[in-house]
Amino acid sequence: MAPTVCRVSGLEADVVVHRDRWGIPHARAESARDAFYAQGFVQAEDRLGQLEFDRRRALGRWAEVAGSSAVDGDAFARRADLAGAARREYDALDPASRAVLEAYTAGVNAWLALGRDRPTDLTLAGVTPEPWAPWHCCAVFLVRHVGFAGWQ
């Protein structure tokens, strides 16, 4: 597979992302910060629809896309205040942990800033993802583990 060169701002040094024969990305970076940035970038590139789905469910906004079938889930997320819990969780993190989520978020937003075509699922749903905030990472974790799936 021929390498693709992509120039984005916000990296401390060059990062190389190689996709193996199955298309799985492998990032090589000189710093942990750049590695987490690359992870956010390739996650947005490969799984933007899933990221948007999880974030909207955590914020109680999935019904905006899915309609009335999602109202109960949105109501639960809002009653449980998953968004508030995610913000508090992020605020309570130590600076090193916050830096990881900030770097990942910068990578997601760098991909969004390229203005590339949205994935098919988002295009069909008429969804344009909004920029990410670092606390959204905590929100996605919570929606995946509080009431929506097994935890521990």
Concise description?
By secondary structure, the protein is mainly alpha-helical.
Question: Could you describe the 3D structure shown?
Answer:
- This protein is 57% helix and 5% strand.
- With 152 residues, the protein is mainly alpha-helical.
- The longest helix is centred in the first third of the chain and has 27 residues, at 32-58.
Q: Radius of gyration from the CA trace?
A: 16 Å
Instruction: Write down how many β-strands occur, each being a DSSP E stretch of 2 or more residues.
Output: 2
Order of helices and strands: EEHHHHHHH
- How does the helix and strand content classify structurally? mainly alpha
What is the helix content? 55-70%
How far the N terminus sits from the C terminus, by CA atoms, comes to 39 Å
| Mean of residue pLDDT values | 90
**Reading side by side through the largest sheet, how are the strands ordered?**
1-2
Number of helices: 7
Taken as a percent bin, the fraction of beta residues is 5-15%
Low-confidence stretches: none
Shape: globular
Q: Major sheet, described briefly? A: 2 strands, antiparallel
